[in-house]
Fold these 4 entries.
Entry 1:
Amino acid sequence: MHTVWKGAISFGLVHVPVKMFSATEDKDISMKYIHTQCGTPLSYVRTCHHCDQAVEWEHISRGYEYEPGRFVLFEKDELDSLSEASKEIKILDFVDLHEIDPIYFQKTYYLSPGDTGSNAYSLLLEAMRQSGKIGIAKVSIRSKSSLAAIRIIGDCIAMETIFYPDEIRPIAQVPNLPENPAVSDKELTMAKMLIEQLSTPFEPEKYKDDYREKLLEAIQSKIAGEEVRVAPEAPKTNVVDLMAALQASLEAVKPASVPTQASESTAKPKAKSRKKTKEETVS
């Protein structure tokens, strides 16, 4: 696995050096937008509609739109100075896992011992396992401050980033929720019986992404049937080729009726020669 963060878990005066790894991976099948007419992949270009030109990263700032069309700008170092970024997962409290609604959970990370923190890691792991508690911590990853739940999965300390309370939308904002619903006792009994019949221990390995499997089969079928679009080869250019192309372009658009200096110098003597010959012929 790729290490995404290095730091330490702290609770009280105890520091546990750890390394962080993503516990999950996105297996969505990535597809690109293709120009249908020629088969070329389309690229994302950062453009300024006012200047009508592409913009490089060094000319880009971050801005907050406080009124329509009006922004306050921040440079990266200004935002970094406001961040609480540190290499510390600071445990603030220990709570019971069942007290946290799943709506709060975002992303899971595995934490392994740092190069010198094996003993402290094992101590924290076993203490949390036996207490049955999880830690609520604050952590900054990529300059973003997050709450996190520190818990045990198997023989590993895991960290779940969780939303702050004000990031959870109130249920009252959901439209058309029934008020004081009337439920038939007979229908309720049958519904509970159906739930009981479908109840089973959770076995995550039996669930599969059917759409992804069908899409992979369709991709392989198209490849086997040679239903393939080949993108045109991108033009290979370098400084020498570009200069040659510019020179050729200038030559191509040069008006044929306008003589160059060289042609004028050669044309004049020829005109005199023809005139002399004509006079000699008349005489």
Note: Residues 47-81 form one domain.
Entry 2:
Amino acid sequence: MTLSIEETVVVTGAAGRIGRAVTPLLRRPGRRLRLVDTVPDPSTAGDDVSWHDVSIQDGPAMARILDGATSLVHLAGLSSERPWADLLRVNIDGTHTVLEAARTAGVRRVLLASSIHAVGCSPVADAADAQPLRPRPDTYYGVSKAAMEALGSLYADRFGISVVSARICTFQEAPGDGRAIAQWLSPGDMARLVEAAIALDDGRHHLVWGVSANHPGWFSLEAGYAIGYRPQDDALTASLARDGVTPPEPDGCGAPLGGAFTDDRHPVGGTW
């Protein structure tokens, strides 16, 4: 039977921690997934899925992969603090390479995996503001994510691409404890955020929290609601269902959003 394709979604970093969990949730009739990573996982290939062993720093290769695509989900990059040169090469220059390839290929919808660490020096209380927080990175890694957001803004304003920069909080299969109760992003809600982003067609840049509908509500969900993101999971409810006990709500008063990333245990430019 011939597969009828209505849209093609390119996912970079598809073999990473988020990509492995979310990619299966994006499969649906009428959609082809082109998955990009330097360590492909061909076990998930199928008629609707293809793997591409390509670096995001390879502009011509990314242009070929994005040719004919309808949207881009950019998850690839270094996911923690590193020396400046590494983060510049992969997270900043790599994002520019991918966005430029998307632009030349005519891709109109993009999700960028930013991070809470782009605003990690902001107080927890500020996250409840409906207006997106200005960048206050806690590390060079956070700077690289703030730069990613700035690139997304540029490509929206200058080239009319619809871009969502998702400030991803604590992504994991199940909620942990402590701050993770407030900051959890479930795989299901990450997939819902991707779906909202790749359905947009307004030629604007949007900054949204990548977080589930957790209690307590540290994070304003208004920017997510504005693009159609409706998180359905809650860390307290999930923890109760798993353990039979409601975990204590974390106290974020006076603490920075970046948590331990803002103290001397995590030196700027260090590796851990």
Note: The radius of gyration is 18 Å.
Entry 3:
Amino acid sequence: MGLSENITAVRQKIAFAADRAGRKAEDVTLVAVSKTVDTETVEAAYREGLRCFGENRVQEYLKKSEALPSDIKWNLIGQLQTNKVKYIINNGVALLHSLDRLSLAQELQKECVKKNTSIDALIEVNIAKEESKSGLYLEQVDAFLDEIADFDRICLKGFMTVAPYTEDRTYLRKIFAQAKTLYDAKKKDFPGFKYLSMGMSNDYEDAILEGSNMVRVGTAIFGSRIYK
């Protein structure tokens, strides 16, 4: 299938999963993960109506954001190095998905103060405790929230998680359900929370069924990655 057909298929699956979960399709934000995808293809996806795109690398994000329409909502979804923070503050990033450590929070706060601005961010949680992935373990979340409580330039908007790559859908649903439980519990204390970002090309339907309202879909839209 081509790009247009892929986008239509993803939208239909989101709508179906949302309906099964008793929600509306428009309640789920689709972030098209455009890492390694050329600018022309991203622009074609934009013409299909997509407005949220996700990038892993700051350098690639900066290049694309300069070349593409200004109303795109850019999401940074990869692990962010502290020395790259200065390039993203006040530079069009709509949402950072990967706030995962104190040193990063400190750098975000410092740079936002310097530029008299703020940044919207999701705390990354590693529900399955996979050593190969970043993110806080569930039992570390409370302490982290306490550590950054005074960081007034970081606007917390919820949580992000990456589930293990597995065909075991029962296990996947359990991981997603734990993230939703965390989100619901903390939303009571943080009224600014609005996003639970979970679900990728291989599991976004299950994620929606368990409460995700933001999915990060790349391969199902753009095809398999070509890494240089």
Note: The CA atoms of residues 106 and 151 lie 8 Å apart.
Entry 4:
Amino acid sequence: MSHKKTVLVTGCGDGGIGSALAKEFHTQGFRVFATSRPLDSMQELSALGIETLELDVTAIDAIRRVRDDIATKTCGKLDVLVNNAQVNANSLTYPVAVTDMDMSAVRALYELNVFAPMCMVQEFIRLLISSGKARIVNIGSVSGIMPVPFSAAYNTSKAALHAFGNTLRVELAPFNGVKSSIVKPNSIPDTSLYKSMENVYQEKRINMSQDNAMPTDKYARIVVAETMKAKPRRRWGVWFLDTFLPRTVVDWVTARMFGFSEFSVHIRNAKDEHAQKT
């Protein structure tokens, strides 16, 4: 076992991206340490002989216990760290409008999507450096670049994660969004400004992201293959659109994708009807 490359993957509950990544790394010959807050949520991985560890990535003491355990098992080295941890579906993406957000839920989302990966890197960095040519993989999202409506908390958390990864790449240089269960049906609060677009919201914000999503096993193969390359490829498509197209064009495309063009027509019609009645 000592000659195998090692990888730690967080958020490996059965059926999710983390589980698929753990399986693919296992297939590629890695020694995999799969983690999740409830240990019994990784039964599929245990059945494959993958080492599973209980880990709450928002608890620093838990992170340190896992770090020390892995350090003992690997002689103080780790080749790949994959920050993928997730909580339950609705609290992960928190698909609500800015005006409807509960800030306690936003803070909890940031704790998981931003602060937890920072803590994981801090605690595992010496193991990663000791391996010689390590990789840190942060599972980001196109939402961190595009202004996906009803997703401000998630968008900004992923944008922060992207910025964190870019900074980390520079700082550590001297040391050498798929089909998932993260989006589930949700409803717009009765008091929301957007309640009248409930049907459009369900169709284009909640359902659309999963209708043509990439299966987790295919996504995992791509991520693992890129992780194993000396020079992983950059994904330029969305970056190009966001960088070079006028903001008005990006906003127009987004509005049509997520039904806000229809909602705008609805609002105008409602105003016209109100004006006629008065």
Note: Residues 103-130 form the longest helix (28 residues).
